[in-house]
TrEMBL record:
Species name: Marinobacterium lutimaris
GO molecular function: DNA binding
Highest taxon of source: Bacteria
PROSITE patterns: HTH_CROC1
UniProt-recorded name of the protein: Cro/C1-type HTH DNA-binding domain-containing protein
Lineage: Bacteria, Pseudomonadati, Pseudomonadota, Gammaproteobacteria, Oceanospirillales
Keywords (A to Z) from UniProt: DNA-binding
InterPro entries (UniProt xref): Cro/C1-type_HTH, Lambda_DNA-bd_dom_sf
Boundaries of every HTH cro/C1-type domain copy: 23-67
Length: 276
């Protein structure tokens, strides 16, 4: 005798969401889920773990409490929802389509990271120096964007110059991805990947940053980076005045930050890894 489905509503809801895709195989491939295991969810015999259920919801663009609704109620909800809110596959190669897909997949918890930060890392163009920049994450037209400002001084007798970078931010599963470009000369794109904050209050975020040195060598580099949260309202001029190059052991920089941006590798490590 066939065992009755214990999670039939959930199974029907997942099957409904899968119907917006070309095939079950495509869904499994994009979710990186084993097909036999996924079939168990579709049959209603097994309920996904909390982590897998969250991944499913992020992929399909629905909330966890929604996918657990009775099927008739969930079906009405999906039918009323604009088609663009479902995480459809990119069907053309346009940049806009890819960016829209990333936005749909981004975790809404990203809102808690909006505000100003000091960014710290060892300078890629001035060896032995530690660079402090100002970063602002904000929402514009439904997208999370950011501006990063470098305040550089060639020598003490000259006024500082400012390099500005603009980019986008996505919180994908449990990592923050920031990609930006230098706006004046458009000669550099950088990527920063940060661990999220697992505390109620955002304070410091750590990760890795990759870019090129801002000199004639233009050497591709990777460095550990720290984002120190300042708040949503700050004294902008004062914060910018604090940006610039510092000695790597400067007492003006918190000791825990100086330690966190050191770029040494532990014995036996074969990859340059972030520190959490």
């Amino acid at each position: 005798m066939t065992k009755p489905a214990m999670h039939e509503d959930l199974a029907q809801n997942i099957r409904l969401l899968c119907s917006y895709y070309k095939s079950i195989a495509e869904v499994c491939r994009r979710l990186d889920i084993n097909r036999p295991q996924f079939n168990r969810y579709l049959s209603g015999q097994y309920k996904p773990s909390a982590n897998t259920l969250r991944r499913l919801c992020e992929f399909f663009g629905v909330e966890t409490h929604e996918i657990l609704l009775p099927h008739t109620q969930f079906e009405r909800l999906v039918q009323l929802r604009p088609q663009a809110t479902l995480a459809e596959p990119v069907v053309n190669g346009s940049v806009a389509a890819h960016m829209e897909q990333l936005s749909r997949c981004s975790n809404p918890d990203i809102q808690r990271y909006l505000g100003y930060y000091f960014e710290y890392y060892l300078s890629m163009s001035t060896p032995g120096k530690l660079l402090r920049n100002l970063v602002c994450l904000e929402e514009q037209d439904g997208q999370i964007v950011f501006q990063r400002t470098e305040r550089m001084r060639t020598n003490a007798n000259e006024a500082p110059c400012h390099n500005r970078y603009q980019g986008i931010v996505h919180l994908l599963t449990d990592r923050l991805f920031l990609v930006d470009y230098e706006t004046l000369n458009c000669h550099e794109v950088t990527q920063t990947i940060l661990f999220p904050s697992f505390r109620n209050r955002v304070s410091k975020l750590t990760g890795l940053k990759m870019g090129v040195s801002d000199n004639s060598e233009r050497m591709p580099c990777c460095a550990r980076v720290v984002y120190e949260y300042l708040g949503k309202d700050i004294r902008l001029r004062k914060a910018l005045a604090m940006c610039g190059l510092y000695e790597a052991d400067s007492a003006e920089i918190d000791g825990s930050i100086r330690e966190a941006v050191r770029n040494e590798m532990a014995p036996g490590e074969t990859l340059f890894r972030a520190r959490h």
